[in-house]
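Why predict the complex rather than its parts? Because the way molecules touch one another can change local conformation, and only a joint prediction can capture that. The input here totals 638 residues.
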Amino acid sequence: MDALSLYDLMLTIRFFEEAIERLFLEGRIMGTAHTCIGQEAVAVGVAAALEPCDALTTTHRGHGHFLARGADPGRALAELFGRAVGYSRGLGGSQMMMDVSRGFYGANGITGGSIPFATGLALEAQYRKTGRVTACLFGDGASNQGVFHESLNLAALWKLPVLYIVENNGYAMSTATARGLADPCVAGRAAAYGIPGERVDGNDVLAVRDIVARHAARARAGKGPSLIECVTYRLSGHSRGDPRVYRSREEEAQAWSRDPIRLFEARLLAEGVLGEADVAARHEAAQQRIETAIAFCEAAELPDPEILGEPVFA
Amino acid sequence: MRTVTFTQILRETLAAEMRRDASVILIGEDIGVYGGSFGVTRGLLDEFGPERVRDTPISEQAITGVAIGAAAAGLRPVLEIMFMDFITLAVDQLVNMAAKLYPIYGVRCPLVVRTPPGAGRGYGATHSQSLERLFTGVPGIKIVAPSDATDAAGLLQTAIRDDNPVLFLEHKLLYPQRFEMEDGLPPPIPFGTSRFVREGTDVTLVAWSYMTQVARQAAAALAEEGIEAEVVDLRTLNPLDLGIAVESAQNTGRVILVEEGPQTGGFAAEIAARLAERAHGALTCPVRRLAAPDWPVPSAKNLEAVWMPSADAIAALARSMVDA
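Output of the joint prediction:
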């Protein structure tokens, strides 16, 4: 993906998430959702480093990862609208979408729940020698689940082609990283399993892409898993209705000054890849993609209640 | 004809399925060199190698999730959880991932989880439980509970070839038992087919897993007194086939449900409700449950014997119902 494609994807994710927050306030969508405003560089950087054959698992905060992997914004948003055209027929909601044809293996809404699952995807790749690498995204909060440690240990023992990519966004819901991790450097936990652990600026999309590509090549070469910590900040609240009482507005203002989209934009402008007029046009085009997605959802059919009479088994 | 142990037939079935399909792999703690805590996988490492017979660290949640992920990607993992009590550590992955993959995401999960429930060996409260009740109320997980070698072989083949998560219960008292069988392996047995173990006219005993054998012993004792008990083995709890249990209840008018596990919240309660819905008019007395007390499984031999539903207790209950 070229730089402008990365930029466009980041904008699409940002406007998708902002639209969700707006749609909740307007009462047009129901349930819950966790937006990733401020973390777009991780989603796009990781996706840019992967091959089409690779697999990706995500978290409850997964819209950005899915869009970066090429999901159709309309069908993804349709899950939040509860429409039959959604990736899970409207049955999954915000946190439960997969598209195996894109190597996107979703999340299940349980913090850390995808970590062993991703490890199993990697086991299949190793067993069948498919050359596929699995990128397993999760948050700093999930790195405190026992299954994170169990999975890293197992993947290291078996040299599985899996990248554990932690998005350290500063907060596990309301709990600041320093209050939740005895040692707030998640990458340091790699040492316990004898695998590489590296930290990167998660607001720098190219830095994320490059480090993930480097470790993906290593994993593809049969050298086993890595732990990559992308240090970022969740500019949005935890989920809808989060009053954000656990942090100050000053802290947020400081974080906004490192908005990954603005940082990348400034860089592209400075390098002449992007002109001032392009910025407005690309924002407009991304915003239009989201408006189209919303219109698509509102016109879409509700799921047929007959579904609940179908067998739950394949 | 030949004589085989339950352990031996499970091992033969696993080996046959692995020879038939390279996507079948075994995952579990101490299943390789050691051959499994109960010896089921003994020798399979030699034939299939460490890529297909994978010893794992003691990490039930992770190895279950790994097996689910490998299944979602197209392998057919057979996971061993050493004692069913340890499945509590893996419940998240089974309930929140495996059971949701097909109904929510449309992704198939051809996974088998083999595990031994059951008391009777004095192993104590955390190595003796029958916890199928944790999963009977979770749509999306099949539950299989054979009571003899032929059923074990037929149902295990079906489990491995099934595209859904299957919990396969191997009661630990069955492992060393010897069974007369035809040579070779029996054909696969479809899920959702309960069977008559014994025909009778006076009372119906419904059971699954090892309790089927206990019920059959009770029926033999009752027969000496002139009471003919019909014994129904459910074989699978999900899918659940109550067709012949209902038919039997309509013929005898009396039903005892035998369950190894505390009575409160057991699966027998669900069966009782369904029999009440489907056979109420034919019943001459209330459906009765014969289960364990609402107590953890005790370790002391005499206490454990009291805790477990016994043939004597079943026979006494049946007698009281017939005499009433």
